[in-house]
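Run log // design_07
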C-alpha cells in the first residue's frame, strides 16, 4: 500500500508539548489556526467569552465595567461608551503584556496591530490595551519609554537628562512636554505625514505624567493611521487596575478583601504563592514585591509585608502602610500604591472572566496566577466552589510578538497609504499564515524560559 504524503504544515510537536505543560489553551489556539491567516488567528483570540456566572466573578465584572466606563468617559460620547461596553460583555478581551511605550516601538506596534486585527475581524468598534507603567523612563542605555526609537536613531522624547530618565517611573514622572527641537531635527516630509507631524501637533502641551503623554500620543498616532476609526484602541494602565483593587477593598463581602486581609485566608494565599514559586514553573512568576508597589519621589518602590505593614526593605524612612483594608484602599486611591501583576490580573482578567492576550512569559505566569487563586479558594463556601468550577475554563492567550517584524516601525510604515496604514496591514496579514508569520514558532523555540522547561521535562522522562 502506498503511503499518502500530507503536505499540510503542522506546528512543531516538541514545542507544543512544552507549552501544553502550563497553558494547553494556548496550544489549542495555535493548532486550530496554524495554517490560517494571521488575521483569522487574531479574530479567534477576540472570539466571544462566556459571561461570569459565580457571585465573585459577577461582582468583579461589575467593578471592571465601572472603571472602564470611567476611562471611556474621557475619550468617547455617551452612546459610544454604551456600545463599547456592550461589545466588551460579549468579547471580554484585553491586550496586555505591553509596556507603556510610544507605538514607534517595534514590539509595541506589532502587538497593537494584532489586537487591532482581532477587533476589526470580530466586528468590535473598540478594544482595550493594558500598557504597564511601572517601568522606569530608561531601562538600559537609550532604551525605554523616554526614547523615541527610529530604527537608525533614537530621540530623547521628553528632553529629560539621562540621570532623571533612569530614576523616574513612567506612571509618576512628570510633568513632561515633548522635546520639540529634537523632533524637528529628524524625519522628512514623508515621515512627517505618518508620525512626526502627529507628534509635533502636541508640542505645546504639558502632560501631568509620562504615562498620560504616551497614552495621548499613541491615541493621536492611531487616529492618523486609521482615519476611518475602524477599531479604536483604549489604553489603560496600572492606575486603572489600582482603582479596581480599591473598589474591591471597599466591599465588605469581596473575595479579594478576604484573601488579602483575613489572616487565615492570606496565609492560605501566601502558601499557594510560595508553592507555585518553588515548583517547576516558578521561573515564570514575577515576585519582586509583596502584593503592591509603592510610589515615592516619582519612582515605583519594592515593598515587603512585615509585622502587618507594607514597608520599603532597608529604608527606615521609606513608605510604611498598614496592611488593612481602609489604609490599602486609601493608598491606592491616593496613588501611593499600585497592585503587583498578580493582583492586577486578578481584577482585570481572572476574576471578571476576561481573556488576557499577552506575551510568552505572560502566558506562563497568568496560568500560574490562575492555579494560585484556585488553591486559595475555600470550596466549603458555596460561592467560592462555584467560582472554582467556573475557573476550569481558562482565558489565557498568546498575542504579543506573534507578529514580530524585524524592521523598525518607521520602515514598516514607509510606502503605506496615508490615513489607512492599519487597513493596508490588515490586507497583508490576511495573506500570511500563522505558521509563516511566526517562522514555525521560532520565538518560542528560542525563548530561554520555555527551553529550560523543555530540557527539564526531557531529563524527567
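design_07 sequence
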Amino acid at each position: 500500500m502506498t503511503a499518502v504524503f500530507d503536505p499540510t504544515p503542522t506546528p512543531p510537536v516538541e514545542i507544543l508539548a512544552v507549552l501544553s505543560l502550563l497553558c494547553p489553551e494556548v496550544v489549542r489556539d495555535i493548532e486550530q489556526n496554524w495554517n490560517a491567516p494571521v488575521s483569522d488567528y487574531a479574530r479567534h483570540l477576540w472570539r466571544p467569552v462566556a459571561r461570569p456566572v459565580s457571585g465573585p466573578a459577577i461582582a468583579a465584572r461589575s467593578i471592571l465595567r465601572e472603571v472602564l466606563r470611567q476611562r471611556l468617559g474621557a475619550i468617547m460620547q455617551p452612546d459610544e461608551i454604551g456600545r463599547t461596553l456592550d461589545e466588551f460583555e460579549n468579547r471580554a478581551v484585553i491586550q496586555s503584556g505591553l509596556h507603556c511605550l510610544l507605538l514607534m516601538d517595534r514590539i509595541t506596534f506589532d502587538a497593537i496591530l494584532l489586537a487591532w486585527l482581532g477587533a476589526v475581524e470580530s466586528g468590535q468598534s473598540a478594544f482595550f490595551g493594558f500598557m504597564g507603567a511601572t517601568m522606569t523612563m530608561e531601562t538600559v542605555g537609550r532604551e525605554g519609554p523616554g526614547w523615541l526609537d527610529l530604527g537608525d536613531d533614537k530621540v530623547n522624547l521628553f528632553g529629560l537628562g539621562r540621570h532623571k530618565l533612569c530614576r523616574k517611573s513612567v506612571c509618576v514622572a512628570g510633568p513632561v512636554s515633548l522635546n520639540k527641537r529634537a523632533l524637528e531635527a529628524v524625519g522628512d516630509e514623508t515621515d512627517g505625514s505618518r508620525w512626526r507631524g502627529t507628534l509635533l501637533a502636541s508640542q505645546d502641551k504639558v502632560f501631568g505624567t509620562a504615562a498620560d503623554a504616551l497614552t495621548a500620543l499613541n491615541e493621536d498616532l492611531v487616529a492618523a493611521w486609521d482615519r476611518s476609526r475602524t477599531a479604536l484602541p483604549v489604553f489603560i494602565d496600572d492606575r486603572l487596575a489600582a482603582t479596581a483593587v480599591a473598589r474591591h477593598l471597599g466591599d465588605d463581602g469581596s473575595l479579594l478583601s478576604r484573601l488579602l486581609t483575613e489572616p487565615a485566608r492570606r496565609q492560605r494565599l501566601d502558601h499557594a504563592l510560595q508553592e507555585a514559586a518553588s515548583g517547576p514553573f516558578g521561573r515564570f512568576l514575577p515576585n519582586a514585591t509583596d502584593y503592591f508597589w509603592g510610589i515615592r519621589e516619582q519612582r515605583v518602590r519594592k515593598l515587603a509585608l512585615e509585622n502587618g505593614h507594607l514597608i520599603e526593605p532597608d529604608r527606615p524612612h521609606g513608605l510604611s502602610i498598614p496592611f488593612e483594608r481602609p489604609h490599602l484602599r486609601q493608598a491606592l486611591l491616593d496613588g501611593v500604591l499600585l497592585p503587583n501583576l498578580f493582583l492586577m490580573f486578578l481584577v482585570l482578567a481572572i476574576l471578571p472572566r476576561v481573556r488576557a492576550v499577552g506575551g510568552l512569559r505572560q502566558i506562563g505566569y497568568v496560568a500560574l496566577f490562575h492555579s494560585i487563586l484556585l488553591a486559595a479558594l475555600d470550596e466549603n463556601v458555596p460561592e467560592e466552589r462555584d467560582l472554582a468550577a467556573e475557573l476550569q475554563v481558562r482565558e489565557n492567550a498568546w498575542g504579543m510578538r506573534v507578529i514580530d517584524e524585524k524592521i523598525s516601525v518607521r520602515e514598516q510604515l514607509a510606502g503605506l497609504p496615508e490615513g489607512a496604514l492599519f487597513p493596508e496591514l490588515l490586507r497583508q496579514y490576511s495573506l500570511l499564515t500563522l505558521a509563516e508569520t511566526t517562522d514555525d514558532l521560532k520565538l518560542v523555540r528560542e525563548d530561554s524560559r520555555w527551553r529550560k522547561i523543555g530540557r527539564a521535562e526531557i531529563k524527567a522522562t
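Residues 13-239+396-460 form one domain.
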